[in-house]
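Lecture notes, structural biology module. Today: joint structure prediction for complexes of two components.
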Amino acid sequence: MAQDDRPLSPHLQVYRPQFTSILSILHRITGVALGLGALALVAWLAALAAGPEAFAVARGVARSWLGCLVLVGFTWALFYHLCNGIRHLFWDAGMGFELETARLSGYGVVAASVVLTALAWLAGILGSGGAS
Amino acid sequence: MSRQENLRSRLGRVRGLGSAKEGAAHWWGQRLTAIALVPLTFWFTASLAGLWGASHGEVVAWMRGPVAPVMLIALLVAGLHHLQLGLQVVIEDYIHSETAKWTLVIVVKLGAALAAVIAIVAVLRTAFGA
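The predicted structure, tokenised, for the full assembly:
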């Protein structure tokens, strides 16, 4: 079918990557990753409802070093997608399209996502009264 | 082009075709859930940070409070709806085989609905169970 030969959008290979285009595809990548995060949340809620034994297993997985690594990744993906999503909502309202504004808001989104991730984990670790 | 098609208006010919299929409803649903998810996500991350290291009993006690089940179910409904709308666009952008595309879209939409039901029942069981 001729249809199968058409180029797929968005075209990731044919343009030179720029800061703003990398942020754009990161929005998509974090969105897809958060689909896995949503499954993890559903599993955690199911374990919570199933009782203390199932919950202990979920808690052990979450607190393993690999679990923590994945959860830090999910936290950053969530905050990035959230902050960049707010940036998108401003664009939807017709604001912030100037190249310089778009570049600056991009820096703001990256900085905010890192700071919020650090704050969330600091609050979690300090609040529970000890390391991980 | 046959003579009969010539008699159709331009609007009549493009309606139901191309990029204007159901774009407005999809676009609007994506934005509406996005707006709802801004406060819900801040509440969710702050809550989970507060629950880090908590025991089963502590998390159950939290879930039996007045706020947690309401906010969690709102988060699950808005989040999973937002997720399936977004994944649909990704699938439509990158997968061109009609069969694979629609199979995946159906799996994603039904999967998100099933995940929402499982999670909401789990929340309600924890909040109101014996």
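Point to remember: Chain A has one domain: 19-126.
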